Every structure is written in C-alpha cells, then in structure tokens.
Amino acid sequence: MARPKEPTYLYLTTIGRRSGLPREIEIWFTRRTGRDYVISEHFQRSQWVQNLLANPLVRWRVEDANFTGRARVIDPVTEPELNEAIQALSRKKYDWGDGLVVELAPDPSA
To answer: What is the pLDDT of residues 3-60, one digit of tens each?
Structure first.
C-alpha cells in the first residue's frame, strides 16, 4: 500500500515589523512531534525571520488546516539535538537542510 504523500509547503504569515501588515510566504517545512519547522536559508537576514523576532505571533496553513501560534528560532548551541534533527528531516524530505531552524508551535490562545 502506498504511503500518502506528505505536504511540501506551508504558508506562513508574520506581521511586518515596520508596516504592521500581514506578510505571507510559501516555504518548505517538516513536522516533528506536533510542531512544524521551517528553515531560513538566509538566517536572520530573511525579512520573515526579522518579522517573527519582532512579533512571534504567527499564523500558518498546511493544505486545509489553519494554525495560530508562536514562532521561535532554535539556537543550535543550546538545542543542538533538535536543530540537527530538524535539519536531518529536511535533508531527507528535500535533499536540503542548511539554515536557521524556526519552530512553529500551535497555541489556541494566541
């Protein structure tokens, strides 16, 4: 029996740190233990990363599922196992996994 295909992209909405307006990007993601993870190829230079550092409240959707929660940058020094695990999942799924790992944690009260 064929395994169902896992979604490739999620749509992440941050709030512009200067404009205050919603900013949406389409980005590859991986999922681990009920959390979604995205990787910024350009580390903290990415506009979307700068936005979530200013305001960690984010929204995202995967196919028909919508989520609200908080984003946080994974520090590879203090959380090396998690950082490496997410990069390995991304390499397995996309043959790429270098960059800054960001965790998206659902929070119904956010």
So the answer is: 557 889 999 999 999 999 999 999 999 999 989 999 999 999 999 999 999 999 999 9
Taking only the tens place, the pLDDT of each residue in 46-74 is: 999 999 999 999 999 999 999 999 999 99
Dmax over Cα atoms in the chain, in whole Å?
Answer: 50
Judge whether 12 and 62 are in contact, CB under 8 Å. no
Closest CA to 52 of 40, 66, 70, 68: 70
Q: Which tokens in the block code for residue 81?
A: 């196992």
Q: What distance in Å separates the CA atoms of residue 54 and residue 102, rounded to the nearest whole number?
A: 14
Asked if residues 44 and 89 have their Cβ atoms less than 8 Å apart, the reply is no
Looking at residue 99, its amino acid is G
CB burial of residue 65 (10 Å; 0-12, 13-18, 19+): exposed
Measure Cα distances from 38 to 7, 26, 35, 83, 103 in Å.
Answer: 13, 10, 10, 11, 7
